[in-house]
Here is the input.
Amino acid sequence: MKTAVIIPANNEEQSIGKVLNDIPVTVDEVVVVNNCSSDRTVKVAEDAGAVVLHEDVLGYGAACLKGIEYLKNKDFEIVVFLDGDYSDYPEELILLTDPIVTDNYDFVLGSRVYGNREKGALPVQSRIGSLIAGFLIKLIWKTKYTDLGPFRAIKFDKLLALDMKDKWFGWTVEMQIKAAKKKYKILEVPVSYRKRIGKSKVTGTIKGSVMASIIIMKTIFVQLIRDN
Here is the structure.
């Protein structure tokens, strides 16, 4: 199945080359969405052979939406999302795409909770946020998630049907909730996780962690209200 990878990137000069180098050759196209970088992220990504797009609205979801728009007329069947900070293991991409190809899953999420983690790679605030969000999604939409991790694969037509909107940190949980609401065939698989290169824009500061938590909770309750 024709596969594309979307990588949002904000000042990932030190890591983006490593990420791109480790993506399996079976991937048909890699799209790096430059999200307001002020370093050499664009140059490094271009030199590594990626298609580079530019999104001037700062936000993880905004960058993902830019990548999706670019892929719409290109006949892709699977889209994989991963971060540009080298915390994910791009070579494990096949763990996410294989269940779609062989067992017809619609959406496969890489779970850092189930997988091997480098010590200190997944901050306490991230684990707590995933636990709370997972509990609420299970309670409301009867779908179990252990993680809100960025490494994920989804059938492209199913992704488009979700009509994604969030431009910030609520992107991952919005996708998971909407997939649950649509009764997609969903699977979590263990993925490895290491300390990112550079400082996290979200969990690297108290302000970022608080803002991410607020946005995630808001996303959950907005989706709940829309059900009623």
Q: What stands out?
A: The beta strands are 3-9, 29-34, 51-54, 78-81, 107-111, 152-155, 186-190. Helices lie at 16-22, 41-47, 60-71, 93-103, 124-141, 156-162, 171-181, 206-227. The chain has one domain: 3-227. The chain has a mean pLDDT of 93.
